[in-house]
Write a structure and sequence with these properties.
heterodimer, A: 407 residues, Rossmann fold, 8 strands, 36% helix, B: 167 residues, alpha+beta, two-stranded antiparallel ribbon, 4 helices, 5 strands, metal-binding (chain A), zinc (chain A)
Chain lengths: 407, 167
């Protein structure tokens, strides 16, 4: 008996060794890229050149210097339905570096969207994405960070990579793309980019999956997320009877893909300097409507960093205006004067719409169609919460913790 | 904006004064003290009204909170573990309260068991930055959520009282 056992153990050991070497081989082969890295982008039109069609943009006069794409580092927060497709497009475009942040794992529930595949279920989204992307284009440097950017640790890591992850090494990233699905993460990204003075692009798809948007965020010149809080109107009624919509948000690969396409288009235009990037581009699938809007920052923004950036922008504009010739300034003012029509047979008057609406509907000059949903109360107590303010009891934090524990 | 019962609950919770988040070193300590004071006051009020329904404690830095909440249905007590992180942008954004053990059992939750709040919550919170804190988030967020969702989960047989399990 003993010898048979010993034989079995020997056999098993050999099998383990065999499997281990097989695994090591497979690991070495990862990422399974079918091509070698390429040092320089070539414009040569041959079937084997992955960049020939991109370099053709130069020859056609769309982009002056396409190769600059390799000097661009892009940070993507959120590698879900929009972020993963965005990452793939930028990878195929040959971007220099991609830094990916997401704390989620791939789930089967993600399979109605593009990019991820069923065999990746259970893997961290950033790790799974990194493997796929390196397989598509090994020239792109890819960094994967699996963490939640709204927690302290995650935020600090995001901030340091945004400030130092750029190309060449050590500087800030060239831009950041927010592809997240919640307000908290957007506010965190917005606060960070405003502090760093980093121009970024915000994207989103509505919970009903039939509309989306891409927004250019330039600290001090466009609203940050604290400037224009979500326009949700609160109505009366009993809290307990309020229905919560099924939160399992709907999603479509179409809308997600379209928004990712619009986002990457804006990114390429921004980074390579061609065309014009819309400050806000909406997409309504129901009516095939693509509204373009300009948005201004809120001078009453509660975020001190945003106010600081707004002052900097105003100063820069004033300096630019002073540098311009006085002649052109005069022309501008005459053009801006109200047009006076000598004939008006039909007594047509221009009346400002909704001029005497309640303060809650006050326009903050943020842009067409944007109104506040509620007024920000002054320092006085809010009617909804007539409670007294907490009084300092003189107890230390430890005392209070102990008191809480005794309850 | 809110109903009378909620107004009354809110009125009994002290408002906070310090606008500070976990990135604000000393001011955050001040804010944490206010948070604890408001929470202690709220729990005491609940006890006096025979409506005690949760306990919370935090880590040393006050960035991670955990504890228990319970709900009575047909004279049976159902207890759940509660947890949440204080977001870096707190108090501009409210904490996302989670009951991980109910993750996947109801549609009224985001990943990780974070409860879905009503459309009222965020505007109300935004109007009251920095006066609202964790106690208000519990009163306006988790309290109403439990009242609506737990009876439904029990009725659907998704949540079973521990005495009735395996029987």
């Amino acid at each position: 008996m003993a010898t048979t056992d010993a034989n079995n153990v020997e056999q098993l050991r050999a099998r383990v060794a065999e499997l281990e070497s097989e695994l090591a081989e497979l690991r070495q082969a990862q990422p399974a890229s079918a091509r070698q890295r390429i040092d320089r982008m070539s414009a040569e039109v041959v079937d084997s050149n992955p960049y020939s069609r991109l370099m053709a943009l130069q020859r056609m006069g769309v982009v002056q210097n396409y190769e600059r794409i390799r000097e661009q580092a892009v940070l993507i927060v959120g590698v879900g339905g929009v972020g993963s497709v965005t990452a793939e497009m930028l990878t195929r475009c040959g971007v220099g570096r991609l830094i990916l942040f997401d704390y989620d794992k791939v789930e089967m529930a993600n399979m109605n969207r593009l990019f991820f595949q069923p065999h990746q279920a259970g893997l961290s989204k950033v790790e799974a994405a990194k493997r796929t992307l390196l397989g598509i284009n090994p020239d792109v440097q890819i960094e994967a960070h699996s963490c939640n950017v709204t927690t302290m640790e995650g935020y600090e890591l995001l901030r340091s990579r945004a400030a130092e992850g750029g190309l060449p090494d050590g500087g800030p990233v060239q831009t950041l793309l927010a592809c997240v699905d919640n307000y908290e993460a957007r506010v965190a990204v917005s606060a960070m980019c405003t502090e760093l003075g980093l121009t970024w692009l915000e994207s989103g798809v509505s919970e009903d999956a039939v509309s989306g948007h891409v927004q250019l965020m330039r600290p001090g010149r466009t609203p940050c997320f604290a400037c224009l809080p979500p326009l949700v109107v609160a109505e009366g009624g009993d809290e307990r009877t309020l229905k919560r919509e099924g939160v399992c948000a709907a999603s479509l690969p179409t809308t997600m893909g379209i928004v990712a396409g619009l986002l990457v288009q804006a990114t390429l235009k921004l980074l390579l300097g061609f065309g014009r990037v819309s400050p806000y581009l909406g997409y309504s699938a129901m009516t095939d409507f693509f509204p373009v809007e300009s948005l201004k920052p809120n001078p009453d923004c509660a975020e001190p960093a945003c106010q600081r950036r707004q002052r900097e922008a105003a100063k820069a504009d004033a300096a630019a205006a002073a540098a311009a010739t006085p002649d052109s300034a005069e022309q501008d003012s005459s053009a801006a004067a109200a047009a006076v029509h000598s004939e008006n047979d039909w007594c047509i008057e221009l009346v400002e719409e909704g001029g005497d609406e309640a303060a809650a509907g006050r326009s903050v000059g943020a842009g067409g169609g944007v109104r506040t949903a509620y007024s920000v109360p002054a320092a006085a107590a809010d009617a909804a919460a007539p409670a007294a303010a907490v009084q300092d009891s003189g107890l230390s934090l430890e005392d209070l913790r102990a008191q809480m524990g005794r309850l | 904006m809110v109903d009378e019962a909620t107004k009354k609950t809110l009125a009994a919770i002290p408002l906070l004064k310090t606008k500070a988040g976990p990135r604000d070193a000393d001011l955050w300590v001040q804010r944490l003290k206010e948070e604890y004071q408001a929470l202690i006051q709220y729990v005491q009020t609940n006890k006096q009204a025979d409506n005690d329904w949760f306990r919370l404690e935090s880590n040393q830095e006050g960035t991670r909170w955990f504890g228990k909440c319970w709900y009575y249905d047909q004279l049976k007590r159902y207890e759940f573990n509660v947890e949440f992180d204080i977001p870096v942008t707190y108090p501009t954004t409210a904490p996302e309260i989670a009951i991980p053990e109910l993750d996947g059992k109801t549609a009224k939750m985001y990943r990780g068991g974070r409860i879905c709040l009503t459309d009222h919550f965020k505007p109300l919170w935004a109007r009251n930055v920095p006066k609202f804190g964790i106690a208000q988030a519990m009163a306006l967020g988790l309290g109403p959520w439990l009242a609506v969702e737990i009876p439904d989960l029990i009725a659907r047989g998704v949540v079973v009282h521990k005495d009735d399990q395996d029987s």
